Amino acid sequence: MGSSSSRRCRISSGVCVAVALILAFLACCVACASGAVPALYVLGDSQADVGNNNYLPESLLRANFPHNGVDYPGGKATGRFSNGYNFVDLVASSLGLDSPPPYLSIRNSSNSTIYLKGINFASGGAGVSDLTNKGQCISFDEQIERDYSKVHAALVKRLGKRNASTHLGESLFVVAIGGNDIIMQVLFSPVTELLSTQKQFISTLADTLKRQLQSLYDLGMRRLFIVGAAPLGCCPLLREQSPTKACQAEANSMAATYNDAAAELLRGMAKRHRDMSYAFFDTSTALLQAIHDPKARGYTEVKAACCGLGVNNAMFLCAPDSKYCSNRTTHMFWDLVHPTEMTSKKLMNVAFNGSAPLVSPINVKELTQC
Ligand SMILES: *[C@@H]1O[C@H](CO)[C@@H](O)[C@H](O)[C@H]1NC(C)=O
Ligand SMILES: *[C@@H]1O[C@H](CO)[C@@H](O)[C@H](O)[C@H]1NC(C)=O
Ligand SMILES: *[C@@H]1O[C@H](CO)[C@@H](O)[C@H](O)[C@H]1NC(C)=O
Ligand SMILES: *[C@@H]1O[C@H](CO)[C@@H](O)[C@H](O)[C@H]1NC(C)=O
Ligand SMILES: *[C@@H]1O[C@H](CO)[C@@H](O)[C@H](O)[C@H]1NC(C)=O
After folding, report:
1. Closest Cα to residue 232, out of 216, 255, 212?
2. Considering every ligand atom, which ligand is closest to the CA of 294?
3. Protein residue with its CA nearest to atom 4 in ligand 4
4. Which residue ranges in the chain fall short of pLDDT 50?
5. What is the pLDDT of residue 8?
6. Is 160 in the pocket of ligand 3 (CB under 6 A)?
7. Distance 35 CA to ligand 2 centre (A)
8. In a designed cystine with 48, which of 44, 142, 229, 343 is the match (CB 3.0 to 4.6 A)?
9. Which ligand is nearest to the CA of 116?
10. What is the Cα gyration radius of the chain?
11. Is the model's pTM score more than 0.85?
């Protein structure tokens, strides 16, 4: 190899300079691999909640009863809004980590060692706006400013500022937020108003999200996996509003607009902060592909929920007296808004190994190796 490359060098030293530059570039970028991800810090809504809302006695937005968890180990209803694992569990296991515990189950721990293995702050019902499901959940702002910032302080106290930065910088932050803001807006404003106010509504959401992500950056977040809004108009809850059971176009358009705004603010953020990297998953585009061609993606049912009451099981969250489908692997939706474990699996395969436009600018595998 030495002789053939030196022969090439004699032929053209220009090529060698180019090769050297490429090698230097690769060396630089491989060098940014700072080891395995030590922990996950998770914030967001019910897609990511692993049981925080179990600790909110006033909340109706809970899932710690059957038939939730029917496919979870032991058939246990943990508080996950799923028949089995949710997407955070799948991200954790793909990285060889345990899915972190709900913050409210460990917040009284006097031993901060437990925080080093990651924590899940997510709360069903939460939105970018504090007003979304107010009183029923831990808002995204509370998750950041009240809960995570306490954990951050405990880690700094324990590890020192520098080592805490290293630990958090290598950790993966997982964020899923925004869907509930859109659902509430669609359910509670007249359609005529929706069309005229959509742009303003999304731009306000994006401004708030930008401030929130900046707070997380200020508190040590450097690797971010963020999932965009689903095509909410196609979830059983909103299909049910249409006489023809068609996808609700305004909700889908708002989800797509929100995702575009989120992608744009992330591009800006990464430009301002060269030490931050992220993977943005466009849930809306990925799920619409499956909704348009269910058979090709292994689904037999993409309209009705598996578990619930009423037409298409779309009338109520999954509860003990609901009926549920016998084969959860071929349904897209578990309940009126949440995906089945199988859907989360299919989506996370793409988030890990896929490419733009579904996951960008890099996928989760690349994000966690660099
Ligand atoms: C933690 O402490 C709070 C307030 O002291 C209490 O209400 C809560 O039940 C405790 N949580 C756990 C999981 O022990
Ligand atoms: C904290 O917990 C860790 C692991 O569980 C244990 O090794 C350590 O001794 C504990 N520290 C204190 C001060 O209790
Ligand atoms: C920080 O990490 C270094 C290297 O692992 C270690 O030697 C040092 O003791 C740590 N500092 C604190 C305050 O834990
Ligand atoms: C569910 O459906 C899939 C696809 O048709 C099939 O491969 C699988 O065996 C079924 N599972 C059960 C438990 O019936
Ligand atoms: C990504 O692809 C690799 C290799 O093909 C596979 O082993 C792994 O399970 C995939 N990851 C996910 C989360 O699908």
Report:
1. 255
2. 4
3. 330
4. 1-33
5. 39
6. yes
7. 24
8. 44
9. 2
10. 22
11. yes
Q: Which of 89, 147, 181, 335 is catalytic?
A: 335
> What's residue 35's pLDDT?
64
List the structure tokens of 199. 């742009």
Is the separation of the CB atoms in 282 and 359 below 8 Å? yes
- 338: annotated active-site residue: yes
Identify the burial level of 294 via C-beta atoms within 10 angstroms of its C-beta, where 0-12 means exposed, 13-18 middle and 19 or more buried: middle
Pick the atom of ligand 1 nearest to 107's CA.
Answer: 1
Omega into 357 within 30° of 0, i.e. cis? yes
Q: What was the pLDDT predicted at 22?
A: 46
- Looking at residue 192, what is its pLDDT? 73
**The predicted structure's pLDDT at residue 274:** 97
12 is an active site residue: no
* Nearest to 335, CA basis, from 361, 349, 314, 321: 314
Nearest CA to ligand 1 atom 13: 105
pLDDT tens-digit series, residues 172-223: 999 999 999 999 999 998 777 777 789 999 999 999 999 999 999 999 999 9
Distance in angstroms (rounded) separating the CA atoms of residues 205 and 186: 14
